[in-house]
Design a protein that fits this description.
two-stranded antiparallel sheet; cell membrane; single chain; mainly alpha; 23 helices; cell inner membrane; potassium
Length: about 475
């Protein structure tokens, strides 16, 4: 049974830390004098107070933290942050949205989904736009991973949180001997990529404000924008090229970035089967989409290639930026592009989806079963990067996939019960559980027209996808609560 006292203590610390991030949009509001400074001031004071009140009663508690506590803290923190993160959206008078809308927008940002209920972004206060982008940036690598670099200083172990939050099927490996150093290494790379992306956008023609905001959502693979037209607002091949480069980089396992920088060698990328498979999927999809666009539309080759590269990379990595409405593209293209998000990005990246590594190992398992039909008595080990993969990992991946499909079907039916048509419901759940953002049909542009119960279901799907399903569902098992 998890220790509720240690969970509340850590939750209080994390909420207190998060309240400090509200000082940035507060500063932006003061700089632009956009009239919502008091909103962020009040929100900061409220979240800070709640955090301190949760921490003080258990400040002297020295209970050792276990893996169950890590799962509970991760869920409680995402739930609490999603709820308190909605406060600025509720208070800003320039937008008129329901509480469910505000919660949806908050969870969408925190989980880097990028689905939005807001329209007229170009007229919103700059500080609120900055806040949306910052939510995605903090959620990109996971605020928990940042916190484990600080919690050890307070006498609280962090490895349990790291296992619970870090995306990907293999969570026990650490880049450095100490979890604190691992978290700092990951965040150093994350901040470095963000700074480089912002600089590239600025050089390519974005304003400094837009460059910073879009770098947040690009490296986080989030997809929020400061404009209704997303990246299409700029109509710039240079900006789109920079976005493509950093979306691809952010979709790669950050552990590989660490080893590449540490050894000053790019060979790690090309020796990794997951990255090769990831790049191969993107390449094949780009070629396929480009050919179909050329055959079934009146586009020139360069125009078709430009549109294809950007939308394939954006959707396949689950970023969700758009330059045009791909749902209106001819033939099967909208479905080809949308289904690419189910594979998603690499394990250990900021992207969503099932993850490339899981898909790769499922394919290898399928080939192994085919070989066994031909040679029933032969032994065919599944290998990844020339190393045998333990059967328990393959079994875990199939278990994950089975639960993923079941959860998807139940939520799809629930969305249909809320009044959505089949395609809209399917794409809304797919876009949410894969942390993608844009869907098809009625949710291609935004999610503002669906009912409040449907939005709350999608919030659950977002958390389910962000926490890789088991981290959340384990809380609903009787065994978790037994001593």
């Amino acid at each position: 049974m998890p220790h509720l006292r240690i969970a509340l203590k850590i939750l209080g610390i994390l909420l207190t830390l998060f309240s400090g991030t509200l000082l940035l949009p507060l500063a932006v509001s003061w700089l632009y004098d956009d009239g919502v400074l008091v909103v962020f001031k009040d929100t900061f004071l409220l979240i800070f107070s709640v955090g301190v009140l949760l921490w003080i009663p258990f400040a002297r508690d020295q209970t050792e933290m276990h893996i169950k506590d890590g799962f509970l803290v991760t869920f409680l923190f995402y739930l609490a942050l999603g709820l308190v993160g909605a406060l600025p959206f509720i208070q800003v008078t320039q937008i008129e949205i329901t509480v469910a809308d505000a919660i949806f927008e908050s969870f969408s940002g925190l989980t880097t989904t990028g689905a939005t209920v807001l329209t007229g972004l170009d007229q919103l206060p700059p500080s609120l736009l900055f806040y949306r982008q910052q939510l995605q940036w903090l959620g990109g690598m996971g605020i928990i991973v940042l916190a484990v670099a600080i919690l050890p200083m307070l006498g609280i172990g962090g490895m349990q949180l790291y296992r619970a939050e870090t995306p990907g099927p293999v969570k026990d490996s650490k880049l450095t001997p100490r979890i604190k150093q691992t978290a700092l290494a990951l965040w150093s790379i994350y901040i470095g990529l963000t700074a480089a992306c912002a600089f590239g956008y600025w050089v390519a023609g974005m304003s400094l404000f837009d460059a910073i905001c879009h770098s947040f959502s690009t490296v986080a693979i989030g997809g929020f924008s400061t404009h209704d037209a997303s990246i299409g607002y700029f109509n710039s091949a240079a900006i789109e090229s920079i976005a493509v480069v950093f979306m691809v980089l952010s979709g790669v396992n950050f552990g590989l970035h660490f080893f590449a920088l540490n050894d000053r060698s790019f060979t790690h990328y090309f020796k990794d089967e997951e990255v090769v498979f990831y790049l191969s999927i993107l390449g094949i999809a780009v070629i396929t989409v480009t050919v179909i666009l050329l055959l079934q539309s009146d586009r020139e080759f360069i125009e078709a290639l430009r549109a294809s590269v950007f939308q394939v990379v954006s959707i396949f990595t689950t970023t969700g930026f758009v330059t045009e409405d791909f749902s209106t593209w001819p033939s099967l293209l909208p479905y080809v592009i949308f289904f690419g998000a189910f594979t998603g990005a690499c394990a250990g990246s900021t992207g969503g989806g099932i993850k490339v590594m899981r898909v790769l190992l499922i394919c290898k398992q399928g080939l192994r079963e085919t070989y066994r039909l031909i040679h029933p008595n032969a032994i065919f080990p599944i290998k990844l990067n020339k190393r045998p993969v333990p059967n328990r990992i393959v079994e875990a991946i199939w278990g994950y996939f089975a639960i993923y499909v079941l959860a998807f079907l139940f939520m799809h039916l629930a969305m249909i019960a809320c009044g959505l048509d089949f395609t809209s419901a399917f794409s809304a759940v797919g876009a949410s559980i894969n942390n993608l953002g844009p869907g098809l049909a009625d949710v291609a542009a935004h999610y503002g027209d669906i009912s409040d119960p449907a939005k709350l279901i999608l919030c659950f799907a977002m958390i389910l996808g962000r926490l890789e399903i088991f981290t959340l569902l384990v809380l609903f098992t009787p065994m978790f609560w037994r001593r």
